[in-house]
From TrEMBL, chain A:
SMART domains: AAA. This is Stage V sporulation protein K. One of its GO terms (molecular function) is ATP hydrolysis activity. SUPFAM superfamilies: P-loop containing nucleoside triphosphate hydrolases. It comes from the Bacteria. Gene3D superfamilies: 1.10.8.60, P-loop containing nucleotide triphosphate hydrolases (3.40.50.300). Keywords: ATP-binding, Nucleotide-binding. The lineage of its organism: Bacteria, Bacillati, Bacillota, Bacilli, Bacillales. It comes from Tumebacillus permanentifrigoris. The keyword ATP-binding applies.
UniProtKB/TrEMBL annotation, chain B:
Residues 4-147 form the G domain. GO terms for molecular function: GTP binding. InterPro entries: GTP-bd (IPR006073), P-loop_NTPase (IPR027417). The lineage of its organism: Bacteria, Bacillati, Bacillota, Bacilli, Bacillales. Pfam families: MMR_HSR1. This is 50S ribosome-binding GTPase.
């Protein structure tokens, strides 16, 4: 019987066709043809199913485009191109009956706060799925607290559980150095050992990405001698330059349909330059800080315009220097504004 | 329990065939299970007269969900049960009404699971347009899908009408190699053959 020996994949496909038909996207004849595969190309389709997933170029292009809109990050972009080329050639090699060895793609992301490590990891997960490297392409984000247990032996159990969840996708450990920070008796080491083991066991099924700040990550890699060699790909996320940060601010604003007035532009640029040059740069968090400034500016802009009777379209879009509240000014400005409002 | 699906275009007489066929098999009262597109099932009891009045009609798309009747056929000493499922009529192209599309999707889904397909074609209509091909792709597709299953039977309905017999002849030429029977659902002609076919499957 036909219905009995269908693969789950086909069944899913059928469900898709029925859904499309329900929404009125496909005609009945087309739906029937696809459900029961009466035309000649259905046999063709079945042949390709046995091979590794073919890259859906359109979806792949969309993701690449998303990656390209991110500013800077040259190293990441070249890495993606390398992986893409490798997979294409692997498929051609397998078609020519040559040996194809899966490569290990575990990675380390090093960089200061707000340089886009998590964002890139999320995009990579989807990209790997489109490329057919990962079967599911989901991202499991874990931190120290998820891996480290309460008593001896508990840690390995917890870690293995998370690895199991991440199979077919990417496991992303943010602030990974915290696993090695607790000292001799800390369970973090147990988690690392367990991770090292499962990285080897499931090297074709999932990708492990460790992320953290540059210096701390180097210390972390030193804790286990086998660790650095297990991560063939190390990506440095450079700090953004003043120019790049301005570009980021610009795209964020354009995305939300706002824009900076000339004076505001100058003010932001000065502030960014100052904080980049300031020694220590303790609380400087690159793109995240820019985002925070802009989100605050949008709120203040809204408060300012609320009092106006009929703001013009231009005014609704333009952000003035007064709206930009940054760094040390932030607290005092807030207070004085509140006070003003109360007096009124 | 074997499942028998009655399928075809709108207004070819699927529902009246179901009711009359059930009566032919000796049913007095019908328990009809309505499987609605939202996934729920409803049961209603009909006697044959009210079933004929309520379930079938002359306008297109009177049946808006799958309607199953459980029937029995004698076999050996016991009785074998099977389910006769009446379905929403299909049309070519995209139907503008969402409700109808959902009901049709149900029909398509059922088509996959059914053990036996009774495909009704309006022989009179076939004669009018001069061949099944001219009616549209749909009937040919159903015939092709059905042809792969063992329990496929094409019923040329409305042979009691003047054009019916000639339409059946046309159909015979086009559906060569398929099981084809001339019937009249309204006047119960050819039901004995249908019963035999179903009996063999059940």
């Amino acid at each position: 019987m036909r219905s009995g020996n269908r693969t789950p994949n086909q069944r899913e496909n059928d469900q898709d066709v029925l859904d499309q038909f329900r929404k009125g996207e496909v005609a009945l004849n087309e739906a029937l043809r696809r459900l029961h595969g009466s035309s000649s190309n259905s046999t063709l389709r079945r042949e390709t199913k046995g091979q590794p997933a073919v890259v859906d170029t359109q979806r792949y292009q969309a993701i690449i485009k998303e990656l390209d809109t991110l500013i800077g990050l040259k190293q990441v972009k070249t890495l993606v191109k390398e992986i893409f080329a490798f997979i294409q050639i692997q498929q051609k090699r397998s078609a020519a009956k040559l040996a194809t060895e899966p490569i290990v793609l575990h990675m380390i992301f090093k960089g200061n706060p707000g340089t886009g490590k998590t964002t890139v990891a999320r995009i990579l997960a989807r990209l790997m799925r489109e490329l057919g490297v990962l079967s599911k392409g989901h991202l499991v984000e874990v931190e120290r607290a998820d891996l480290v247990g309460e008593y001896i032996g508990h840690t390995a159990q917890k870690t293995r559980e998370h690895v199991k969840k991440a199979l077919g996708g990417i496991m992303f450990i943010d602030e990974a150095y915290s696993l090695a920070r607790g000292g001799e008796k800390d369970f973090g080491k147990e988690a690392i050992d367990c991770l090292v083991k499962s990285m080897e066991d499931h090297k074709n099924d999932f990708i492990l990405i460790l992320a953290g700040y540059g210096l701390e990550m180097e210390q972390f890699l030193r804790t286990n001698p086998g660790l650095p060699s297990r991560f063939p790909i190390i990506v440095h996320f450079e700090d953004y330059s003043e120019h790049e940060l301005m570009q980021i601010a610009d795209t964020m604003l354009r995305h939300r349909e706002y824009r900076l007035s000339h004076e505001a532009n100058v003010k932001l640029r000065h502030f960014l330059r100052d904080s980049l040059q300031a020694t220590g740069r303790r609380n400087f968090s690159n793109a995240r800080m820019v985002r925070n400034i802009i989100e605050r500016a949008i709120r203040l802009h809204a408060v300012r315009l609320l009092e106006k009777e009929r703001p013009s379209r231009e005014e609704l879009m333009r952000i003035e220097p007064d709206d930009l509240v940054m760094g040390e000014e932030l607290k005092s400005e807030e207070l004085s504004r509140d006070w003003e409002n109360q007096r009124r | 329990m074997r499942n028998c699906l009655v399928i075809g275009r709108t207004n070819v007489g699927k529902t009246i065939f179901c009711i009359n066929f059930a009566e032919f098999l000796g049913l007095q009262r019908m328990d009809v299970y309505f499987q609605l597109p939202d996934g729920t099932t409803r049961q209603r009891k009909f006697d044959l007269h009210s079933a004929r009045q309520e379930l079938s009609g002359v306008e297109a798309h009177h049946t808006r969900s799958l309607q199953s009747i459980s029937l029995e056929l004698p076999r050996g000493k016991g009785m074998r049960q099977f389910k006769l499922t009446d379905s929403t009529g299909l049309t070519d192209g995209i139907h503008p009404d969402l409700e109808m599309r959902e009901a049709m999707a149900q029909t398509l889904q059922e088509l996959r699971h059914a053990d036996c397909i009774l495909h009704l074609v309006d022989a009179c209509e076939v004669m009018k347009v001069g061949g099944v091909k001219n009616l549209g792709e749909l009937d040919l597709q159903i015939a092709e899908v059905g042809g792969r299953k063992s329990g496929y039977l094409c019923l040329a309905n409305k042979v009691d009408l003047p054009d019916g017999q000639r339409g059946f002849k046309l159909l015979e030429k086009e559906f060569k190699g398929l099981n084809l029977l001339p019937i009249s659902a309204l006047y119960r002609q050819g039901f004995r053959e249908v019963k035999e076919h179903v009996w063999r499957l059940v």
